[in-house]
């Protein structure tokens, strides 16, 4: 072997050198301990800045995205939820309906903070209950579907993770509307039998029947006025309904800084205890319906409203309000003057149906099978659309037709958030036809009408008819709700497209139509509400809700 090496060296004319290997450095125990301590300090800092995060995932994010995530907790219960919100669009495993399904999560079990605890904390911040329910950065305490603001916010957070930090910084502490910061009176300090002065009571009742009643005309106005003026009735069902009417009348006759309505509401709630759910009195159903269908949404208690409305509908079926009766048994053998009139029964049932559908549409919750074949009660009939006394029932008549389409849409979106284009197109055509068939008195002038400015000026200069005044705000709210439902119908296409993060040129023709309609309806809704909404609390509240 040595001879071969020498020959090789001679042939290559290379010097034969022996290179010693570099000495192996054996780190001292102290050095290892120092390095381990340094790594541990880095780990502690990292955990404080990004608790529960995966460093491999964080290494792929930009500086702005990393800054946005600083301090965002990720507990064992919520780590999967947060990773869903923060993962880049390219990591989505599927497109379309499957990706939208991932946005809908089961609510947290036994949440530390929910609607009830937020309501007890303080009064502040949000102008409507739907957005207040949806602006939750943590795991939801209640279920909301793809039609909710939550779904849209989650898509925004996926596409632009830095949005989460902005939402966290600007998020109000509660979902209670910004009325006034003063505490409400304690329920025990309010006498449920107390009545306001006659002049104030009359003002509030007039406000209710002129502004609220046309939207949900379940009360017998003439009978209500007679009972109030005589002032002899003091039973709990009547006082509960009276205080409910006074609460809503107080809301619409004042501005958003007033909390005078709270005293009437608390008196009504003292009278409407659990035992009242077993009552056979229609006045109790009407009081519960008005509170759960409208008032509780104004004070941002959507979950309480939803639960109470469910009980109210059950109670209405116990009273048989869901059925149409023949003349022979409509009064169950009682004289006509002692039985609830058929018209009031119909208006009560369908008002409850409309109120329940309105709430479910914007929270993305299913209709639970309404209406069904078992609902046989007829829709109220308006004899003379020009008579102010009966014209106020026109909105209910057409809102029932609208809500039948809305329940189809909501149930379809609850089953699959991304509808087949054929089904979407059919439902959109139903909405367009519904709007085209509305009477002229329920079609407000919009900002896109050529005569809009002229009509606005002339309406101020000339005296409007009583019918037109009664239907002005209800017709606006109906139009905004119609526009909002069209937007909710098409928005899943926009959300799915945003999740895919692809250019418009790569979209299919159907996707382009869905996205284009959603954007066009949204732009028009903003413009119409901005130009149409008068300085009226009821109109303004609904305008903020849909804008």
From TrEMBL:
GO terms, molecular function: DNA-binding transcription factor activity, RNA polymerase II-specific; RNA polymerase II cis-regulatory region sequence-specific DNA binding; zinc ion binding
A Pfam family annotated for this chain is: Fungal_trans
List the biased-composition ranges (Basic residues). Answer: 454-463
Write the record's keywords in alphabetical order, separated by commas.
Nucleus, Transcription, Transcription regulation
Q: Cellular component per GO?
A: nucleus
Indicate whether Transcription regulation appears among the record's keywords: yes
The answer, when asked if Transcription is one of the entry's keywords, is: yes
Domain Xylanolytic transcriptional activator regulatory: from-to ranges: 305-386
Give the span(s) annotated as Disordered: 170-192, 442-466
Any idea what this protein is called?
Xylanolytic transcriptional activator regulatory domain-containing protein
Lineage, opening ranks? Eukaryota, Fungi, Dikarya, Ascomycota, Pezizomycotina
